[in-house]
Amino acid sequence: MKNTATFVPFEAPPFQVESMPITTIKLAVSQAEREAVYRFRYGIYVEEMQRKQIYADHIEKRIEDPLDRNGYTIAAWKDGLVVATVRNNHLNDAATDHYCNFYQACGNTQNHKIAITTRLMVAPSHRCSMLATRVCIALYKEALSRGVERAYLDCNAHLVKYFQGLGYRIHRDRVEHEEYGAVTVMHLNLLDLNYLQRIRSPFRRACKEFLDLHR
């Protein structure tokens, strides 16, 4: 259940939502949209990266896990196909109990104001673009609208600098993940406008607009 945007080519799975316009970034709400996300995950994790996945359905070629029940997923679409996705869950969701200990995230504030970010992935055709950042911005805005103040994620070492550029800071380093080996746990203060502006985070404009609206 780990977020990743490792850059390795693969052939995108042919599950299409016919009516979706080009370059749409939105919440995956309908069953068809969610199913497209689950099959996209399988294409990335299993067919491309050949990673062990506890919840992989190798017959239907899809990955749906317990966090999907109450999580909210942003997906990017091109010509009706998913080309990127990322997910958030609030820590008051019982399915996230494992992350309270793994991230050492509980107790900082009320759990409904803490989110974990997982399943960030981008199709090979869009990995030399700003698409990963665009879906992260969309998720950041959605999280603000849902009252999230702090978010956590874990990533492999080569992605630490990318997430630092977004505004995340190292929370725990070299933690052993059961599926992905050594990972770095990072945290983001969504409302720390001064820091986001200082590092020129892509989130800074959305943060300022949100704070101006709620003053």
Structure description:
This protein has a domain at 24-153: Gcn5-related N-acetyltransferase (GNAT) (Aminopeptidase). It is built from six helices and nine strands, in the order E-H-E-E-E-E-H-E-H-E-H-E-E-H-H. The chain is of the alpha+beta class and 215 residues long. It has a seven-stranded mixed beta sheet with strand order 1-4-5-6-7-9-8, with helices on both faces. Strands 2-3 form a two-stranded antiparallel sheet. It has helices at residues 31-48, 97-102, 131-145, 160-166, 193-198, 204-213; strands at residues 24-27, 56-57, 62-63, 72-78, 81-90, 114-122, 150-155, 169-177, 181-189. The longest helix is centred in the first third of the chain and has 18 residues, at 31-48. Strand 6, helix 3 and strand 7 form a beta-alpha-beta unit. The model is unreliable at 1-21 (pLDDT under 50).
Stretches where pLDDT is under 50 for at least 5 consecutive residues are: 1-21
Strand content: 25-35%
The CATH architecture assignment of the domain at 24-153 turns out to be 3-Layer(aba) Sandwich
Helix content: 25-40%
Give the overall shape. Answer: globular
Question: Distance N terminus to C terminus?
Answer: 36 Å
The radius of gyration computed from the alpha-carbon positions, rounded to a whole number of angstroms, is 16 Å
Secondary-structure-based class equals alpha+beta
Largest sheet: 7 strands, mixed
> Order of strands across the widest beta sheet?
1-4-5-6-7-9-8
Q: Return the CATH class of the domain at 24-153.
A: Alpha Beta
Contiguous helical run count: 6
* Relevant CATH superfamily of the domain at 24-153: Gcn5-related N-acetyltransferase (GNAT)
CATH topology of the domain at 24-153: Aminopeptidase
Topology, number of strands: 9
Mean pLDDT, all residues:
85
Name the helix and strand elements from N-terminus to C-terminus, one letter apiece: EHEEEEHEHEHEEHH
